[in-house]
Amino acid sequence: MRIQTLIAIKMIFLLTIITGLVYPLVVTGLSQIFFLKRANGSLIEQEGIIIGSELIGQKFDSSAYFWSRPSAIDYNPLPSGGSNLGPTSEKLKMLVDKRKALFDSANLITNAEIPSEMVFASASGLDPHISPKAAMLQVERISKARGFNGSQKEQLKVLIEKMTGKPQFGILGEERINVLLLNIELDKI
What we know:
Blueprint: H1 2-34, H2 36-39, E1 43-46, E2 49-53, H3 90-106, E3 129-130, H4 132-136, H5 139-146, H6 150-163, E4 177-178, H7 179-186
Helix pairs in contact: 6-7
């Protein structure tokens, strides 16, 4: 019985060293060598200042920028999660109606079908993408806020098409646009 206990203690110690120290250090080292940007959160810098991450949605509430998908956690990455409100929830219905009215009035839309991502928060509350249709519906508001002329407005539409990501491997997911990257390019017009 003593020998088995001694062997068990040695195995726990050995596996703790392997799985708790060696493996994490090797994986971290390899990721820093081969995937430096991704391993460090896909951070975006401008003039030496980190302005965000490609992976985490941010709040844009200015009329001069594309708006992100709503967030149930106000874009705070620490308590990442949805609202857990179900389809029969009155609170969810009120939130969706409020978001729809805001999106309609701000974007000067009448009788247009608003993409669901502009009225429903994602499950994580941090989705950084919107659909090309959601971006196109915001062109009038942004053009008006920035005082764009006709050619600049067309540049904006071309920018949306250029920034649209295709489904992965041509079949996985849907077309999408990263709002932070789109707004960075928008400032260049």
